Amino acid sequence: MFWAMFAIAAGFLGLAVLGVFAVRVFLEARRLGRQVEDSARRINRAAEELERAAASAAHAVDAL
What we know:
Elements: H1 2-63
Coiled coil: 29-60
Keywords: Coiled coil
């Protein structure tokens, strides 16, 4: 009887540990998603600035 109770307790603890790890993975995935979103926003802003600078340089070359 002891071994059956021990197996049930070990199984429950194993599931609890897996649950904790699942929550940690979920939270880290959300954090990574936010970081990717911020990076994409920065890249878009830099691309727009580069486009404006290129247009300005093109106008300056045309003026020469």
